[in-house]
Amino acid sequence: MRFGVVTFPGSCDDADARAACSLVGDAVALWHGDRDLQGVDAVVIPGGFSYGDHLRVGAIARFSPVMAEIETFAHRGGPVLGICNGFQVLCEAGLLPGALLPNTSLRFAMRQTVIEVQNTLSHWTRACAGGDLLSIPAKHTTGRYYASQPVLDVMEERGQVALRYVSDPIPNGSLAGIAGVSNEAGNVLGLMPHPEHAVDALTGSADGLRLFESVAHVLAAAA
Amino acid sequence: MSAQASAPWRALGLTNAEYELIVEKLEREPNRVELAMFSLMWSEHCSYKHSKALLRSLPTEGPRLVMGPGENAGAVDVGGGLACAFKVESHNHPSAVEPFQGAATGVGGILRDVFAVGARPIAILDSLRFGEPDSARTRYLLERAVAGIGHYGNSIGVATVGGEIYFEGPYEQNCLVNAMCLGLIETERLIRSAAAGVGNQLVLFGARTGRDGIGGASVLASAELGEADAAKRPTVQIGDPFEEKKLLEASLELLDEGLLVALQDLGAAGLTSSASEMASKGEVGIDIDVARVPLREAGMEPFEIMVSESQERMLCVVEPARVDEVLAVCAKWEVNGTVIGAVTDSRAMRILDGEDAVGELPVVALVDDCPLYELEPLAPTAPLYPAPPRTLEATGVADTLLGLLGSANLASRRWAFSQYDWLVGSRTVRRPEAADAAVLVLDPTPVEGPRPGIAVSIDGNGRRVACDPYRGTIEAVMECAANLACVGAEPLGLTNCLNFGNPEKPHIAWQLTRAVAGLADACRALDVPVVGGNVSLYNEGGEGPIYPTPVVGMVGGLPDARAAGRLGFAQDGDAVAVLAARSWAPALGGSELHKLRGEPLADALPAADLGELSALHAAVRRGVRSGALRSAHDVAEGGLATAVAEACLTAGRGAAVDLGPLEGVAGEGEPLLFGEGPGAFVVSGDPQRLRAFGDTVTVVGTVGGDRLELRTGGERVAVPVAELADVHARGLADLLH
After folding, report:
1. Rounded CA gap, B237 and B716, in Å?
2. Please, which residues have CB within 8 angstroms of residue A209's CB and are 6 or more apart in sequence?
3. CB atoms within 10 A of CB A116
4. What b-and-e string marks burial along A159-174, b requiring 16 or more CB atoms within 10 Å of the CB?
5. In this model, does residue B616 exceed pLDDT 60?
6. Which residues pair with B126 in a beta bridge?
7. For all residues of chain B together, what is the average pLDDT?
8. Strands A42-45 and A2-7
9. Residue B5's pLDDT band (boundaries 50, 70, 90)?
10. C-beta of residue B316 within 8 angstroms of C-beta of residue B176
């Protein structure tokens, strides 16, 4: 399978995300200014500081030409993963419910967090089992997940809360300990922790690979 | 006030004699543009006029050297056709005036130095010094400097993998912010900064030029700090990591495409320094038209454009036929790219403002003719520094140990590094506080078999250098090398930042002279070349000079990062041992414990046997690589007992340790427990395999349990590891709030 990883001006984790994807399939770079997804099977919107976080995190990237294509791709059921800044962009674009607010600590914070897989409805958690614990680092200034209570109730009911922090939580004040959420169809997932930095035990953990493997399983099963 | 004292060159930091020399070289009076350019190029910061002669004594050759001093960054061969480019630089005075932007632009500046040689930055380390933590100014400077470093490094996507923070009274007014950056590049692709090819075009790219940082190098960096420094805030530059990220990617793409003849970053003294250095190295001339420089605000004077230190700008030399391609890459990355001049055969810097010539200076006069000053060193006969305030009353072994672990200089730095991204790039094998040095794997792709890596550490203990500039500096180098040994790395190259007071004062000149002699001798003993560095002088506040602070950054190589050492005890049942040089003689003079007890500084440190230390480092390195040592930790600040406690609390494992076998050999009582001095390591491993270390090894205990039990001098103390860990973890945060 072929992954496409978006590069915006200010993306920092795009190279790491391409490297992680290439452990599972092929990986190509998607340029923010191109309305072209190069026929990829899945899209990753990586972490970083797209457009310098100017205006509001993710607010400018959401209007870039490549995002119009990604919205169409997602609405047709194409798998899309947003990591950290990518999660913020997906919320801004309305592809995921809720929003990400500044950490309650008001500081950038980095931790090796443990997150628990809440359900396997999402394409990106399909190869996991509910209750699996993943050791994945998180690092951000704006990672406090928020959605209004009625929205959150519906999300919980439909199984859209995909990942929760369980130990050594990052001090971001995220609602209900939410680390990642999916859309209703399960093809779009956003999370604050960085699975692309957790694909090699030598650098701390290989648990992040499970997300990339999940989407490969889903696509292989559909083929 | 005499007429000369109020002369324009005096306000720019030039002496009357220097001004007269300029007039002599030019055979006329310089105009305003020319005077501004001279004042910066002849400032201490750009000319090294008080340190150049001394620095020539440092060894700059080594088997793995690829690029030595003189370029934007030095580089060493790290194997596999790759070079590691690295350098450390100070941003002390800007940080003392405006800590957030000062520290942020310090990081930005050192990043540009590394990508100016074509290397992709992969790691940042910071060495910070502040006053005592009970001062409101210290807390403000620390909070904002750490925030500034994080803001820049995190946003540009380069991992901050290590560093150090120390608190000592003499840094109260004049804090130190030194930043080091490492980058990787295929060795054959390194690019130099010499301008070449008459008729080639000069392209300025990156941010627009504004009025920020005017006179930073001369007015701020090359004079002592004083009361009115708040007024110097406009001389501090403002950083924009987003702009620098685009600049970085554009620069590396330009080099990948082979479009550049030469590349240089704009740092201190802006366009003036960058262009004239490029012309000097290439033995050519350069014409610059300031009217073509993209500006942030209208109405800037030509001299302002030439000296502005606006951040995130680079200068390159391009063949005329490639200019369009260069500008297209700039446009792709949304950075300004503008042809602002050309290379000439005139050997002069010619400054034009459209049609009008506004300055013309011989390159040699500007770059090479600054007078060099002989230092007049004089050893002080009375202490230069007051005794530190007493802050620790504890006396028993357990309470003293806990007091040390929770003290400002020894407590966990987690508060700081949890504000940094230490993993971006996915190369970080040993993250902060997991080992004595940071370890990065060269290729992050997980593959079977050996994974070559590099290790890096940054060290410098100003208090010990204040006690004894020569031996204190040797200790800093040896400490750095010991840290590399603990992860199994062999030193390949060294960079340094010499932070000192006003060298025109004889005692400061003495500190500087003795420290450089120590640096040279230590580097020769280790056979490690100095690949580049930086000198920061005039670090004095109203209450006197800082501690003399040579900061040493060292890069080492590991054949296999999978075998990288750790500092924490790894396995219950392992033997705990001390590996020590015969010359190891821990003493309390100049130690952390003496500092906490308010003792005056020692007036000398014991001599070290450099050959023996170097051999000991090699033995530790071999033991870590072979797995004979499952943990290794250098005995440093706080002494042996502190090192054992750190090995416990890092791993969450206890140990039963009896120092009896060392008593009478390496000392006894408090000097043995808490004394300092180079030449010892706390290690653990299989008892059989430890025997191979022969005379140097003394087994002192066993790993296991949830307490640290320490027997010494007939006394036995036991402290739960959880208590050690708690005191260590909370220490810094408690002191700050």
Report:
1. 56
2. A20, A23, A24, A195, A198, A199
3. 18
4. bbbbbbbeeebbebbb
5. yes
6. B163, B179
7. 94
8. parallel
9. low
10. no
Residues of A in contact with B428 (CB under 8 A): 203-204
Nearest CB partner across the interface for A109, out of B240, B419, B445: B419
- Residue pair B370/B41 in contact (Cβ under 8 Å)? The answer is yes
Q: Measured between CB atoms, does A108 come within 8 Å of chain B?
A: yes
B413 neighbourhood in chain A, CB within 8 Å:
none
B431 part of contact set with chain A, CB < 8 Å: yes
CB contact residues (below 8 A), chain B span 317-336, against chain A: 333-334
pLDDT computed for residue B223 by the predictor: 67
Torsion of CA A63, A69, A73, A78, to 10 degrees: -80
Please name the amino acid found at residue B501.
G
Q: What are the tokens at B186?
A: 């295929």
| Ranges under pLDDT 50 in chain A | none
Q: Minimal CA–CA distance to A157: which of A145, A168, A169, A149?
A: A149
Q: Which of B464, B514, B422, B585 is nearest to B166 (CA)?
A: B464
What is the structure's pLDDT at B211? 86
Q: What is the pLDDT of residue B48?
A: 87
Please give the pLDDT value at position B110.
96
Centroid of chain to Cα B52 = 19
pTM of the model: 0.95
Q: How confident is the model at residue B1 (pLDDT cuts 50, 70, 90)?
A: very low
Confirm or reject contact between A196 and chain B (CB < 8 A). Answer: yes
B43: left (phi over 0), alpha (psi -120 to 50) or beta: beta
Give, to the nearest 10 degrees, the angle between helix B323-332 and helix B241-256.
140
Minimum distance, in Å, between the CA of residue A197 and any CA atom of chain B: 5
pLDDT digit string, tens, across residues B656-673: 999 999 998 888 899 999
Structure tokens at B406: 């929770």
pLDDT of residue B227: 57
Separation of alpha carbons B511 and B465, rounded Å: 8
